[in-house]
Each structure stands twice: as C-alpha cells, then as structure tokens.
Design a protein that fits this description.
heterotetramer, A: alpha/beta, 5 helices, B: alpha/beta, 8-stranded mixed beta sheet, 3-stranded antiparallel beta sheet, 7 helices, 23% helix, globular
C-alpha cells in the first residue's frame, strides 16, 4: 500500500461533487490534446481546464474547437453540440459532416474521450448505452464509436448507483458499449486506473480508506 | 440549361413511392428538412423506411410522419430523446420496426452508399449485442464487423445556400448528415435558406457539389417562422 | 439490315478525323449530364458540345465543372486536369480531394465517361491501361474506377491499330480494365452499340459498307 | 499553447526512420511538397516505402529521392509519365519494388486508414490482373475485391494556408491527395504557401482540421522560385 494513498486525511469522508470530479479529471488533460466529452457529467470538464492549457474539444455532430455556451441573445441556432446544447466556436474551429467527424473519432485521432457509464469492468469493458438487455426504446448514438476510437477512454461516474450498487465490477451485467477500452475512472470517491491486473487505486477522497472503497467496489482494487 | 429549383414543395416530393427508403438529414433540431417532411406527409407515401439520426420529438417533423402511420421501419442511432413520445409509443406497441445503428456506423454506411463501397469492416460495435449475427473478422489487433452500404431511394436534406446547379453550403453544425446523405440516394431533394447566382459560391467552399442534388426548394427562415 | 444504315452515300470511304469523332460523340451527350473525359482523344469532346446544352465535366484529380484552357498569361498553376493540362473553372465549379472525387466516380454519379481503349470486346470488356501482360513500367491511374463507376461508358478510338489489327474483338488479349462495362463505341469508321448479342451497328461513315466494316472487326456486327 | 510551425525543414523532418512508409501528396506538379522531399533527402532516411500518385519526373522531387536510392518500394497509381526516366530505369532493373494500385482504390485505402476502417470491398479492379490473389466476393450485382487500409508513418503534404493549430486550406486542384493523406499517417508534415492568424480561417472553409497536422513549414512560393 503506497504512502501517498495511506496519507489521506482523517475525518469524515467527503465525496466529490460533480464539479469537483470534473476539476479533478480536467487537471489530467495535457496542453494541446483533442478531447471529446460525452453527454452528461463529462461535459462539465470543459469549464475546469487550467487556463495555461489549450485543449481542443470535439463534438461528434461535427464541431472541432467549440467553446462555452453563448451569452443570452448571442445564440446561433445552427451551433449545437452532441448534447443539443448551444455552443460557440473558438478561433481556430473547424466544421465537419458526420462521416468526417466519425472518421476522426474512429480513426484514433482524439487524444481522449471522457464518457459517463453505468458500469466499468476490471478488464476495461464499458456499459453505458442501455440498462438492460430488453431496453424498451434503446438509443446508442456515438457511444460505441467514441469508446473504441479515442486513444484514451476515461470514465467519469458516481462510484455506486443510487441504490448503493457498485458500478465498478468484475464483469458488466448491462449491454456492452466496447470491450477493454477504459484506462482510467474518476468517481465521487476515487481515481482508479484499469491495468492488466485490474483496478488500481490512484487517489482516494479525503476521509475515505482503501478498505471502505473496496467495500463499495465489486472487483478487487490493487493499492 | 440546368436549373434544379422547383417552385413548390409538392413538385419537390412528386413521385415518392410507397415502401421507399427515405434518408432524412439533421441532428437534433439543426439541419432538419422540416418543410420537406411536411411535404412528404402531404404527398402521402406510406410503408416507408426512414433513416435518420433521431426520431423526432413533440408533434412536428419526423414525429408527425411517425404519428401519421407512414413509417414501417426506422434505421436510427438515437431515437429516444426527451420528447420522443410518439416514437416510444409506436416502438413499445410493436407498430414500428427499429434498426439501431451506432452513429459513426450509420454515417459510414451512408458514405459507403454514395461512394460505391458495398461493404466495409469497422471495429465499432464488435462484441456488443448490436452486431449479433453479423460477420466478424480479426483485422490487425481488433475484432471488426462487416457493415453494408445503406442506400436511399430519396434523401431529404437541409442546407444554407444553393445555386441552380445544386451546389450547397451549410451553416455551423447544420452539415451533420446532410452532405453524407445527398450522395447516398437515387433522388436528393434539398430545402435551402438562401439562393445564390451561379458563380457566387466560391468553388473552394462548396460542401455538396450539385451532382448530388436533384431538386431544390427555396425556403427562407422567415417563411418557416410565419 | 436497316435502311438508314444502307443509305450511306456511295463514293470513297471518308474515315472520321479525331475532331469529327469528338463532334459525333458530343452530339449524343444530353443537357445536364455530368461527364468525365478520359485522357487523350476523348478530351477533344469538350470542344464540341452543342451551345444549347450545359454539360458539366469532371476531372478525377478533383475538379467538377472545369472549363477550357486559359488564355496565355491567365494560367493558374494550381488548376490542372487529369491530363496535367491547365484548365479554368466555370461558374458553378466545385473542388474535391481524391477520396471525394473517386467516391463520385465509383459511386455511379457520373452520367457518362468516355475512354480511349486498346481493345473492346463484344461483351463490353475494355482493355485500355496496358498493352501486354508483362508491361515493363505499368501505370493505371483512374481508368479502372472510371470504367466501373460511370453510369455509361463509351469508348472513342481508331477502329484498328496502325498495323490494321482490329480493336473490336471477341475477347480482349490485353490486360482488362473492367468487365462488361462499355455500351457504345465511336471509331473513325462507325458508331456501334454493345448489346447482349454483341456489337450492333448504329452508324457508318460515308462511303463504307457494313461488309467492309465487318472485315476490319474481329467479332460479328449485328446490322 | 499549440503552435505547430517549425522554423526549419530539418526540424520538420526530424525523426523519420529507415524503413518508414512515407505518404507524399500531389497530383502532377500541383500540390507536391517539394521542399519536404528535399528535406527528406537531406535527412537521410533510407529503405523507404513511398506512397504517391506519380513517381516524379526529371531530376527533382520524388525522382531525386528515387535516384538517391532511398526508396525500396513504391505504392503508386500512375508512375509512368512523360519524363519519369528515373522510375522507369529503377523499375526495369529490378531495384524498385512497385505496387500498382488504381487511383480511386489508392485514395480510398488512404481514406480508410485515416477513418479507422481496416478494410473495405470495392468493385474497382475485380476480374483484372491488378487484384490477383486478393479476396473477392459477390456483393449486390458485382464482384468486389477486399482492399486494406494504407497507413503511413509520415505524410508529406502541401497546402495553401495554415494557422498555428494546423488548420489547412488548399488551392484549386492542389487538394488532390493532400487532405486524404494528412489523417492517414502517424506524423503529418505540411509545407504551406501562406500563414494565417488563429481565427482568420473561416471554420466553414477549413479542409484539413489541425488535428491531422503535426508540423508546418512556411514556404512561400517566392522562396521556392529563388
């Protein structure tokens, strides 16, 4: 067990808020990376990129280099991201059609994609598009292309379901999005890497012990 | 002389047959050919297969086409969006067949149809239940799935500006599926916000060359909001 | 034997010059067609399109809607056609990269491609890229894509080789470009269709009889 | 801060390894990265595989790289052009391996490499001796050939204008293979005629987004003709 992980402050466990999770993930994004942020929590990351880094965000509906939401009254109805939110274009942005946009994604040109997920398995499998194998009205969108195409796939999600069920598991029970692609996971409780040996702890939130984290995780965590 | 502008939506949609496969551009509310979808409803063709990224929402556009019972089968990547009540109702009651396709595979299958590529291998979806029953092959370090070109009988698209040869430009995220679908159908019909004289569009900035466009309806946004 | 063919004027046989062949082929190109003209003789066709027809010429190196050669002093060194000749752009022209240009060609969007050829067989096979199966330094370019991709493939060539050998044959001896694709042939002696039954005569030049044409053709001609 | 401009040709070509596969843009004399080819000759890498539409002519550019004995293998659609004496000599004497590929298949194999498509079926070449030994399959009404993505270690391309993110525009027929090769290589190096400040290039008119470009050398035509 490593010292830096053991040295987590004593005191009550303080899970990270979504914004804190986003800030923590943003800190690991390098200057000059091309990044796609999945719909949902991952989109918060864009607000937390350190000011000294130039990070170029891609949206799979055909934007490369989009910026923050426009001010009220400055909305261009023709500029939306994959989550259907209005956005702006940064200087240096480029526009693409869907075949070119997914060529960029599938062709391994993005340095990083951060996805939300229902479950991640210890072998890097991800399930993030359907919650049961008999989903009444399914939708997949670009999830499978993004999960397979980006050079790195990180997941950002709550460590457990609302009911307290672990989302980090030995094997995904939900329909798979892609196999063996996730390399890092940011949760409200910890940062973990997916290694050939399974989950490996990188960082715990204040007040939590590795044993407590293991108790809400359904696969062994190497520390 | 080539002049692909037609004076009415009815003329634009003339000849669409029952059972046809209709490609419909747009992503979310951007770049959707709403006028042409309304025209298709009025035209009356039924038992359609519709290929589109979304399945519409509320009671307009694609949702209204679905509600009118004209669609037998939907090929789609993301049909379930907030407000897609009509889709969900038809799907759950078994009155609508759905082929769910990953968005990138949908785009690439359309591109392949336009490009004369009958089939291709892609890593997307390998090992997932979306590709059950499809041919799989190990290529390089990855399992890949054989996917086939997706042709349309008709493509309904939306663009920003057109000239009489059918050259098109788009705006912002309005490209999405439109330039990919235009070459993939036997008959491509475009609704456009603006018109240009031949030669006004810089050859360097034309996204869809006119060869892919058969009929154009000029439909300025003011009219759309009237 | 049809009357219009029999009615060819008496007198000495007058083979068509290249310009006459081009004019004859151009007369069959409809208003609004998208056309690729192969390198060599077929490029002459562009000069003979009737003035009342708007025909859009494609060049496989990425031009759609190119126009005649520029005047001296007006050359843009960045504008060449597939034959590496300087050209101009018409109003309405569009520019393409190679993958998009060949998507257009292979995707059956061109109404017509007119190619030169070494041989055409009675079943529509065409041989136009190599003269022997051991060609010392071969080159194929876009010939195979054009021959397969265009909706109609016409061939424009001399009826025989310089040595008098027929170019219209039962079966191509030279390496094939594409199989069963040619629908019409314009030679210096005749216009012929390729039908399921083989070559069929459409038109003879003045002073030539069908029997004389058959004598320099290595497959039966239906008249 | 992202700034892909490099101050010298030598820095642009740094790190190219012996045995590398080099994609070289251009069609005829238009859109050829002559400066970068000269830089590659100076850099010294050998036993190269070169992928290009033509094989050069006279004693410059690709022809000079061939003459210098640096190329082991050429993947090309139209190597034999007037003036391609060096290619012809090397080929006939067996000192150069040639893979002849139809131009459209060459373009599509490069596009596939950049697009993450490992292989595709195409009707081009079916039944001809250029596809001897390749997997063939009847798809629809046609025999088709399985072709594989063609990846480069390095792409050398030429463009009209670049900004510091690597966004590129082209001019006239100068696009040709350049925008297709840029995404197909692990390292893409561009020589450009003009530079633009970030934001000067309209997002609607960028042909190659900067994500596909790693290093840029500014090389105005005046310098080229000096």
């Amino acid at each position: 067990m490593r010292d830096d992980i053991l040295s987590a402050e004593a005191g009550p466990c303080r899970p990270r808020s979504r914004e804190e999770m986003a800030r923590r993930a943003a800190a690991d994004i390098a200057d000059g990376w091309y990044v796609n942020l999945g719909i949902g929590i991952p989109t918060l990351i864009a607000n937390h990129v350190p000011a000294d880094r130039e990070v170029i965000f891609q949206s799979e509906n055909g934007l490369l280099g989009f910026g923050p939401a426009p001010d009220e009254g400055m909305i261009d109805p023709y500029l939306i991201n994959a989550g259907k939110q209005h956005v702006t274009l940064l200087k240096g942005a480029a526009l693409l059609h869907q075949a070119d946009s997914f060529a960029m994604i599938r062709g391994r040109h993005l340095d990083l994609c951060v996805l939300g997920a229902f479950q991640v398995a210890a072998n890097g499998d991800i399930a993030n598009w359907a919650t049961s194998s008999n989903d009444a009205a399914p939708a997949v969108g670009g999830a499978m292309d993004l999960a397979l195409g980006a050079r790195r796939v990180w997941v950002m999600m709550e460590h457990t379901t609302r009911e307290g069920e672990p989302r980090l598991v030995e094997s995904c029970a939900y329909p798979l999005t892609a196999l063996g692609v996730v390399s890092r996971i940011y949760t409200n409780l910890a940062v973990l890497d997916v290694t050939p040996q399974g989950f490996r702890l990188v960082e715990l939130v204040a007040g939590l012990t590795a044993a407590e984290l293991q108790a809400v995780t359904a696969a062994p965590i190497l520390v | 002389m080539i002049d692909k502008f037609v004076p009415s939506v009815a003329e634009a949609l003339a000849g669409v047959k029952d059972g046809a496969t209709i490609l419909v551009g747009g992503f979310g509310a951007v770049g959707q050919p709403d006028l042409l979808i309304e025209g298709l409803i009025a035209q009356g063709a039924s038992a359609l297969t519709v290929v589109a990224n979304n399945a519409g929402y509320g009671q307009v556009g694609l949702a209204r086409l679905l509600a009118a019972g004209r669609v037998r089968r939907l090929v789609c990547s993301y049909p379930r969006i907030p407000g897609s009540v009509i889709f969900e109702e038809l799907y759950k009651s078994g009155r609508l067949e759905l082929e769910l396709v990953p968005q990138g595979t949908l785009a690439e299958r359309l591109r392949a149809a336009g490009a004369g590529i009958p089939a291709f291998f892609t890593p997307t979806g390998a090992g997932t239940r979306l590709v059950d029953g499809k041919e799989t092959r190990r290529l390089g370090a990855r399992d890949c799935v054989l996917e086939h070109a997706l042709h349309g009988d008709v493509a309904l698209i939306q663009a920003w500006t057109a000239d009489r040869w059918g050259n098109l430009t788009y705006r912002g995220s309005g490209r999405n599926f439109n330039p990919v679908m235009a070459p993939a159908a036997a008959l491509t019909i475009a609704q456009v916000e603006h018109t240009a004289q031949l030669g006004e569009l810089d050859p360097e900035v034309i996204v869809t060359p006119g060869i892919y466009v058969d009929r154009i309806v000029h439909h300025p946004a003011e009219a759309a909001h009237a």
